Structures are given as structure tokens and as C-alpha cells.
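Much of what follows relies on a compact textual record of a protein's fold. A record is reproduced here so that you can trace the correspondence yourselves:

. . .
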Amino acid sequence: MAKVEIYTTPTCPYCMAAKALLARKGVAYQETDVSRDPDLRAAMARRAGGRRSVPQIFIDGQPVGGSDDIHALDAQGKLDGLLGIGG
């Protein structure tokens, strides 16, 4: 199974939607709250190619974008392969 990291803030509905999708798939993830730490948010943005919005999701160290992006990958049937599940 892939290593999944997600950068979030506590009140972000997109973060909640992304985490819910991962939970439905039974995927464990490492969550980092960037709401109170500008240095963490800056580090996230560097990893995410300059994107500062949350969530930012990484699968096996590769940035895949935010909630809309992983939901789109799921709709296209590509997310499970990236996560190393199913099939």
C-alpha cells in the first residue's frame, strides 16, 4: 500500500471530503495540520509546487493535488492503482 500524506486545516470542508474518501477506501494516511504554523504551510507549498491551498495530498512522495484531484482520479478509476489497493 502506498504512503499517503495530507496537509490540512481543521475547518476545511475539502480536507474533510478528501479524508472521507481515503477512509472509505481503507487507506491510512499521515495528516499534518498547517493551520497554526506558517513554516509548515511554506514547506507544504514548496513540496506542492507552490500551491498553498489545503488539502495538499502526496502519494508515495508525489504531489497529486487536492480533494477535487483525488476525487477525479477516483472517478477515472486511477486512484486505487496509485494507492496500491484493489485490482
Helices lie at 13-24, 38-47, 67-75, 79-83.
